[in-house]
Amino acid sequence: MKSIRSINVVRFEEINSSGARVVILNRPTKLNPINYEMVSKILTTVERYEYDPAVSCIILKANGKAFSAGGDVVSVICSSLAGHWSYPMQFYKKMLMASYLLATFKKPVVSLIHGLVMGGGAGLSMQTMFRVVTEKTVFAMPEASIGLFADVGASYYLSRLPGSFGEYLALTGARVDGPEMVACGLASHFVPSKSIHLLEKAICEQLLSSSTASNISAIIGRFSQTPMLKQDSVFKRLETVINKCFSRNTVEDILSSLENEVTSGAEKWIKDAYRSMKSASPTSLKVTLKSIREGRRQNLEQCLFREFFISGHMVRGTVNRDFYEGSRALLFDKDKKPRWNPPSLELVTEEIVNRFFEDMDDPDLGPLRLPRRSHDVITAKL
């Protein structure tokens, strides 16, 4: 028997016969951007699910053609410009908490990722136990183009992709499809879109309340396929080009390496990567690279704490206001002519970059508290 709670921006379905709980992002006309109300409801409800013995697993999905276009940047910008800067940081806190909760959930979580998934939407889904994609799934992290950085756990999961593929995705905002997501490890399974509803039905109907990850894996295995990469897939260029260019020590060296490829008659995707980085915020590129590289040697908790610090500086504009300028140019005025400050990579000094990684002395904001996973509550103060 199925019951439905909440008919607003996020829906919760309870499959009482199997103990499955379905969490549905429900802003389809706007491509499901995640706002404060959505993440608050997800966090509160999923926390309850974890300790409810009647709950066997969670299915995370979305209504519409997109899984999620990311966090609701427009609401963040509008609130900040109106003087309510604490609202976006409270929202961001909850995003990090929800990301951590789903990533470390004590019961199986199955993300059915159909359509576009970016930013905060990726942060909620990319670290769950099962990440099912289709031929219509598209992943991207374009934050540097609006003066932000790859966040909500991205410095953890992108830094663990093969070679320098994580740096490539974070610095260029390049899009990868479902088969590429499976090949690089972003996704765990590929299921044709025509079978997604059948898979969900099978999980909801065939599980027992004592279901295990192996039970769910077996069910998904009946529907999953081994996808074929397209001939022009960028992941096929990992060893020959991506690692060579994106393993360089600095953003300047990466761009120089890409420029050499371009002048040598490179493929279109290399030219696109070069143009994307040249148009992005120089500061965001350097912050992103440092964040990914630090993430490679840190655990998830450390990555989320660091991302909390960086985001605080970007929202407060304590170092520069590239986040607001990039949002103006791409989301509001849409002139696509951001005036970055500093305007070039050579003017973004190491001192400037390091300031984004420092603590902020702001007693009004309070600490980031991640869900309890040991005897002590894990906290970090911004």
TrEMBL record:
<dbReference type="GO" id="GO:0003860">
    <property type="term" value="F:3-hydroxyisobutyryl-CoA hydrolase activity"/>
</dbReference>
<feature type="domain" description="Enoyl-CoA hydratase/isomerase">
    <location>
        <begin position="21"/>
        <end position="357"/>
    </location>
</feature>
<keyword id="KW-0378">Hydrolase</keyword>
<comment type="similarity">
    <text>Belongs to the enoyl-CoA hydratase/isomerase family.</text>
</comment>
<dbReference type="InterPro" id="IPR032259">
    <property type="entry name" value="HIBYL-CoA-H"/>
</dbReference>
<protein>
    <recommendedName>
        <fullName>3-hydroxyisobutyryl-CoA hydrolase</fullName>
        <ecNumber>3.1.2.4</ecNumber>
    </recommendedName>
</protein>
<comment type="pathway">
    <text>Amino-acid degradation; L-valine degradation.</text>
</comment>
<dbReference type="Pfam" id="PF16113">
    <property type="entry name" value="ECH_2"/>
</dbReference>
<dbReference type="GO" id="GO:0006574">
    <property type="term" value="P:L-valine catabolic process"/>
</dbReference>
<dbReference type="InterPro" id="IPR029045">
    <property type="entry name" value="ClpP/crotonase-like_dom_sf"/>
</dbReference>
<dbReference type="InterPro" id="IPR045004">
    <property type="entry name" value="ECH_dom"/>
</dbReference>
<comment type="function">
    <text>Hydrolyzes 3-hydroxyisobutyryl-CoA (HIBYL-CoA), a saline catabolite. Has high activity toward isobutyryl-CoA. Could be an isobutyryl-CoA dehydrogenase that functions in valine catabolism.</text>
</comment>
